[in-house]
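Table S5 (text form). Sequence records supplied for joint modeling of the two-component complex.
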Amino acid sequence: MKNKIECLIAPCTGKTVPLSAVPDEVFANGILGEGIAIEPADGKVFAPVDGIITSVTDSRHALTLMSANGTDLLLHIGVDTVSLAGEGFCLHVALGDRIKAGQPIADVDIALIRSRGLSAICSIVVTEPDKIENIEYHPGDCIGGKDAVMCYTVTGKGAL
Amino acid sequence: MKEFTYTIVDKDGMHARPAGRLAMCAKQFASDIRVTANGKTADGKRLISLMMLGAVLGTTLTFSVTGEDEEKAALEVERFCRTQWNPTGVVLNDETLEN
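The corresponding structure-token record, covering 259 residues in total, follows.
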């Protein structure tokens, strides 16, 4: 397969921060993979790529996706939000759905998350970082569903 | 091949944090590590594959470890599950799991 450049569109409107700033060791230390996080300004969540929903957790705070180029992605909303058991999360997609970049996929009550003392930071992670290279991050403010926040070259195999 | 089973005692099941840490533990070894649950088999070194199992509290995972370092890999991955995954340190019995 020819190497392809893939960009992740901001899943939320807000301000991007490095994954190392996420207050959770598995994100901050790169255990989950390479990615970027957004401190959200509102609760609208958009698909970061064209692809397919590969899993949805029961607690609706995390989704896994595979991009059309075969990149495995984890979209995780908040920190320790698994503890909310779904409260405050409304998903518009289900397992197996095909998605287009920028499509609204969830509405999240970020005020509720914060009222429970949790961070609402939204992380998007490439979970098999050995399959990508030349990662570029686009720091600063971003518009959800529109602005690219991270681009890289896909070198791995396995396009859909 | 080495095999062992582990029943999830984390109330949140196979969510991102344990799946990521389990995959990281598994990646240290050359052996192929397969995890089976709910009629599905995951690659133990891939976070997303593990999350796609849909494993929850009480789900029994069957680990199959095959390769040159299978002995050590099975031992260490089982040790991870039993000592580092369970956040409370409380070992639940079957009765507790049913409630």
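Note: The interface with chain B takes residues 24, 26, 31-33, 54-55, 57-59, 62, 64, 66, 72, 74, 76, 82-83, 127-128 of chain A (CB under 8 Å).
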